[in-house]
Amino acid sequence: MGLARSWSIGLHGVEGDLVEIEADVGIGLPGLSLVGLPDAALAEARDRVRAAVVNSGQIWPNRKITLALSPATLPKQGSSYDLALACGVLAADDRLAADALEGVVLLGELALDGRIRDVRGVLPCVMAARRAGVKRVVVPANALDEAGLVDGVELFGASHLCEVLAWLRREGDLPGPETRPRSRSRPPIDDLADVVGQEPARRAIEVAAAGGHHLLFVGPPGSGKTMLARRLTGLLPDLVVEEAMEVAAVRSLAGALPPDEELPITPPFVAPHHGVSAAALVGGGSGLARPGAVSMAHRGVLFLDEVFEFGPHLLDCLRTPLEEGEVRLARKDGVVRYPARFQLVMAANPCPCAPPRPADCQCGPNQLRRYAGRLSGPMLDRVDLRVVFEAVGSLDRGPDETPEDTATVRGRVLAARERARERWRASGWLSNAEVPGPALRRHVPIPRDAAMDLDRKLRSGLLTARGLDRCLRVAWTLCDLRGGERPDAADVHAALELKHEGSAV
């Protein structure tokens, strides 16, 4: 009879807390009580853990067992606590030395025969353990490569409960991650030179990449909207290690991180179908919510093709993530936050019938109004650049036409990004799109003639205060692309044209 402690990690979103598991084996009727706000999957651990211990050749204490998970007020979910629960019970029954568990985080689900199964979220769990100061972490063997993406922690992989018990008793060793150089080579990407014509759209996507701005493409089918949108990630800067860890942590929670995945270097590109549910788009589910497409697109591009086919309520769900860069989901088990700082690119046909030639459109005024009305005014106001595509007239470029490739345009984009980063370095903003409006106006006043033009549009209702701030951000990006010191009137006017080009909707 005794008291022992083991440790695991409780996740809420991409953040995690160190969970202390106290195991008490005492006098009373045989049974097991699990306290500390467990969910249904965790409450069932009493049966999994007992069977795994017995089938691993260990003796299960025929006494009253109490397992307390602390902090008691933190909701616990999932099956990743199984391994820590089993080791805690055996230590409390003097089958293990209690000090063997000190400073060790144990993660993994137990099968009835003692095998250790994979669990979701191993990467953010290891990151949370490192933040808590824990130096040793045991994870499922299949998740060892994923956990190895985190530096500063001694990692061990196990495939069976017997292996962990032998390691804790110092009767055997557990393998660590392979020591191999971390490869972060840029994978092959689609080249911008493949796009035929559409010079205004090519210019808009360069501006969007340079400043982190949101885009709306409107044009007939087959004009290159999707093709151009998919080339945006090739223009964006590579992810730094901290950003890559954020992206990998979200993928791990969603179960979308392959076992042998290296740290990503290219920003993600996520394109959900227009039949997607709200939970799949922004996150959701029972208990504590899972990440959705907006979080999977964190630090990358979220592409909504045929955007007018999305339900209006789905599009309005994006308004808060676009402004704040995160998703907050409230459920009965608590509130979770997922990162969602992405670039939004939307593409749409000009009308429901979408003929190759605009002159062949058969849609009536009311039908057109209902079609475009699915994109609300507040949502449209958050779009920085709007581009109208023309139908492609010929695929023959001509002998003298040599369109710029991705490498050439990306060079200008990276130079503009570096200018913006240096300008806003003291405030911590990485791109012009992240800078609040008051800071834009306070940093360098815009030219008087440009300011008067903006004031006229504000008074006439053609521009909102939010739209004005977005125009200023685009003007700064245009200034960075040409290597200027401050936006001039031409930059501001060009930004206004890009926001309202061709009356896209």
From TrEMBL:
Domain AAA+ ATPase: residue ranges: 211-393
Gene3D superfamilies xrefs: 3.30.230.10, P-loop containing nucleotide triphosphate hydrolases (3.40.50.300)
PANTHER family to which the protein is assigned, alphabetical: COMPETENCE PROTEIN COMM, MAGNESIUM-CHELATASE SUBUNIT CHLI
UniProt record similarity statement: Belongs to the Mg-chelatase subunits D/I family. ComM subfamily.
Entry protein name: YifB family Mg chelatase-like AAA ATPase
Organism: Actinomycetospora endophytica
